[in-house]
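Field notebook, page 632. I keep forgetting to write these up properly, so this time I am using the form the group agreed on. The chain and the ligand, FE2/S2 (inorganic) cluster, are recorded exactly as supplied. Prediction of the bound pose follows.
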Amino acid sequence: MPEPLVRFQPQGRKVSSKKGRTLLDLASEAGLNIESICGGAGRCGKCKVIVRSGIGSVTPANHLEKSTLDSLELASGARLACQATVCGAGHIVVEVPQESQRGHHRRLAAGTERKVALDPAVRKFVLKLPPATLKDLRADDDRLIEFLSRKAKWPVRISEGVHRHLPGALRKQDWTATVTLFRNQEVIRIDPGDTSAELFGVAVDIGTTKVVAYLVDLTSGAALGSESMPNPQIPFGEDVIARITYTSKNQDGLEKLQTAIASGINNLMLKLCEANDLTPDDLLETMVVGNTAMHHIFFGIPPQHLAAAPYAPAVRTSLCVNPSHVRLNMYPSGKVSSLPNIAGFVGADAVADLVASGLYDDRKIGMMIDIGTNTEIIAGSRDRLIACSCASGPAFEGAHIKFGMRAATGAIERVWIDPESHLVRLRTVDDAPPRGICGSGIVDAVAELFKTGLVDPSGRLKSVDGSSRVRKGKKGLPEFVLAKGSESSTGEDITITQHDIQEIQLAKAAIFTGVSILMRRLRLRASQIDRVYAAGAFGTYVDAASAIAIGMYPDVPVDRISFIGNAAGSGARMCLRSTKMRDLADKLSKKVEYIELAAEKDFQSEFAQAMFLPHRDISRFPGAASRVQRSS
Ligand code: FES
């Protein structure tokens, strides 16, 4: 029987398939990028395709598709590409609508980086050893160790796996060889001749939703490139709690999640190598950061105890293992290291944020907010630092938002609404016709709707006489038309629904609850905060005035907010380049005090207050309203 053949339209790309593969997989194999915010979990509805013929060779719609697509869509062949699976022979023609095609993504902000003196943990040394003779019968390992220990003035050992390369490497170029030492104590590689000009490492930031890898030249400290992808664990659960639950409910759950993240990182490393004429064997150290759950899962450490009181992590200290231990494809005797965690979900990524922001060394009070599906907040100064983490969810990534999308071509990223006429002005990524709305756009939209009075402090979208843009949506709930079908690239109206506003309220309330509890613990008023460091891709692009207007950031003057980009990635790169920074990270992880928000007695009431726009019922706190006006 011939293999099933799938043709994707309008691109005309064909791919033959084995049964059991999803249309999303096949599209990717055909070189097409289909939007998949939830990573193929069947939850975001962004991977919609239309099966134009051969529907009999595709599995029937499952419950996830039935709950995401309406009956009319299903009747016309619409399917979720991540769920629809090839199950029969024959030709299948699949149309990929424009709104499901992933455009060019806005480049990830590289992150502010402070200069560090180059002092990596992996270093190369070229040596010329005295050759073996009949008068010098020492074995190769003794010869090498004695030479190195004499130079280093402390004992040096040879890592397992390196011995097999010793005799060849030493003799190939007349006893001139290059050794790679880890922390000046362990030989992790030996090559014939002088290879000291080639020394590479990778820094990886494992976010709950996105994974980013950076290639670093460790002879110069230069960053050579970065690659990113959605976290491949998303199909197992959107947030850290769902993934932890998966590991405790499934015997092989932890292994599956570990394998998924390892193969994702391997893909990123391979892309970085290919772009720089390297092979994975050229990578000698990988420095990994992530929140505590991402960290534990990557290292194969059971994360269950993080999800239940008293929320103690299994490991706080920094780790260093061999690549095979975590299934990474790099030089086999290389090292995979992590920064230390702090406590609860505040992990190595927050330590990296601290290192990158310099907050730990400042006399003035600052607050670092790294917004992601899990948001970390650290406040204080060089005298005292307090941290917490909050479950802000993936709404800022566009998930659970009707027209939400990542910051790719055509995503609405800025919104202005005229207070009188309610006319809307938009800015989109790449100035393309609007296709959907990304996180910074939706925060802007909610802030503008609130400031124009179209949304009240409780988040209710009001229908205002004369505003033709507020209308009833499909389920009878109000929605605001941001872009009419005649302006959008899909021909469809792009709207902000009542449900979207509520999703943003939940996300921002989670963050503001953390902000206000930290401020109370430090006995701080917003006016005393000298600097707010907004970290993460979303934090970098969101408009600070809009974030203050909806009550996501503390009420500080806008010019006190600094955008530091992907600070976790920056901190990881800094620590890859410098052992001094690693030692500092170890000290900081012990120094930062941790607050478990769930254990705070006021948590529920703070959260309920924070649901309001900006962050409490302003009819009861009239002073807040004037602050919103000032900050906007
Ligand atoms: S990727 Fe298919 S529903 Fe999200």
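OBSERVATIONS:
- The two ends are 65 Å apart (CA to CA).
- Residues 498-521 form the longest helix (24 residues).
FOLLOW-UP: compare against the apo run.
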